[in-house]
Amino acid sequence: MAKVITLGFLGCGNIGGGVYHLLTDMHGEILKRENIDIRIKSALVKSIAEARSDVPKDIMTEHADEVLKDPDIDIICEFMGGEQPAASFMQQALENGKTVVTANKMALALNWHRLQAAAVGHHAGLYYEASVGGVIPVIRSLTVSLNADEIDQVMGIVNGTTNYILTQMSQQGRSYTDVLAEAQQLGLAEPNPTADVEGYDAAYKLSILSSIAFHTRVTYAKIHREGITGITPDDIAYGREMGYTLKLLAIGKRSGNSIEVRVHPTFLPNEHPLARVDGSLNAIYIHGKYCQDMMLQGRGAGDKPTASAICGDILYAACHMDTPTVPSFDNTAETDPAISFTDNWNCRYFVRLDAADTPGVLGSVASAFSARSISIASLLQRPSKEKGRAQIILITHEANEQAVQETISSLNAELVDVKSMIRVEC
After folding, report:
1. Which of 56, 93, 96, 292 is 20 to 30 Å from 279 at the Cα level?
2. Phi and psi at residue 171, in whole multiples of 5°?
């Protein structure tokens, strides 16, 4: 006899509708493959009258308790987005003993310790594969396949909107503002794109990803974050001339008990696997002591890819109702005091300067870097758009963040205008 699993939805927009249709279309196949009969009983919406027309109205409700407190519901799927009320609703569901499946990186990253405590305390499951990388199975890869390894680096393109914008800027030489407007028209960027273009979305995802990879809670507050709004076609063009491709990366590294976590525009050598990931695709590069180098790539957003990942969690949860899985680290509000975080990381640096085209300026720039033991790996000098000025573009050898920032601050502002400083990962 088939195992009956009853679902309740919190929200039923694009993602919720995608999950509804996938489960409806695949109902017979899931029954055949897993002997599980999945039934959707109710879906919370703001307004039944204004809800999507391709989901039956008779399962919709405007009252959260009809989902959260229904004794027939086994698994609650959260599709509301944002931190609240999604986080509090998920906590109530877990406290009612119901397993929760979510793709909500913001609610999870900011409230993970509370949600996990509620799940453990009430013997419920909490699953969130789709919260990072959409359809890419990176969370299960880290928690199951690579759980015995020692992961020391995760680095990824985890936001499709910014990857699309930077790809178009690189391939067509267009401005950030122009490409953003196009992305909004295509539905690839929100009307208010701040969460994506300023790196907030990627930072929430990095909090989750690095916590799992490094087996310790890495809170959102520990993550250095910069967006792509200041990137110009000149930055991208000069980087390309020097053999580099620009991406917005989420980077996590662990060495012993020291961790660095940062989100910012990053130049990569053209031959790096992540440099070849274009458009709205996501990809996550992992390095471990034993697994060495590996990369996972796929669609990071959209109703169908996200629905695929969510439904994978639903099936996994349905098969493990009596033995829900939990992360292999102490999921507390703050990071283990034994762990330290650094903002003085080591990498290479791309620096673009607009300088007075007079004798000695280039030498003074080189001397400023040399004074802090920073050596220059490559350098370009190009005419400036302004008469009497020149563009100086350099890439350093590996140096520490503090020394580079001090060097840039020390340059004579009357002779040198610092246009950009972009980190380089090799």
Report:
1. 292
2. -80, -25
Helical H segments across 122-199, by residue range = 138-140, 160-172, 176-185, 194-197
Residue 174 has a CB neighbour count (10 Å cut-off) of 16
* CATH code of the region 346-424: 3.30.70.260
CATH of domain 148-299: 3.30.360.10
Query: What pLDDT sits at residue 301?
Result: 83
| Cβ–Cβ under 8 Å, residues 390 and 370 | no
Closest to 350 (Cα-Cα) out of 274, 241, 259: 241
Q: In 60-175, which residue ranges form alpha helices assigned H by DSSP?
A: 65-68, 86-95, 105-121, 138-140, 160-172
Evaluate if residue 387 carries a pLDDT over 90: no
The 3-state DSSP class for residue 59 equals helix
pLDDT-derived band at 315, boundaries 50, 70, 90: very high
User: Is this prediction's pTM over 0.85?
Assistant: yes
Mark whether 57 is an active-site residue.
Answer: no
Distance CA 370, CA 78 (A): 54
Q: Whose CA is closest to 201, among 159, 166, 165?
A: 159
For the chain, domain boundaries: 3-127+305-319, 148-299, 346-424
Residue 154: helix, strand or coil by DSSP?
Answer: strand
In 214-323, where do the E strands start and end? 224-225, 244-255, 258-269, 281-288, 292-299
In this structure, the strands spanning 151-157 and 281-288 are: antiparallel
φ, ψ at 299 (rounded to 5°): -75, 125
CA distance 86 to 269: 40
CATH hierarchy code of domain 3-127+305-319 = 3.40.50.720
Q: Which of 32, 41, 57, 205 is catalytic?
A: 205
pLDDT at 25 over 90: yes
Are the C-beta atoms of 282 and 156 separated by less than 8 Å? yes
Reported as type and span, the H/E element at residue 315 is helix 303-319
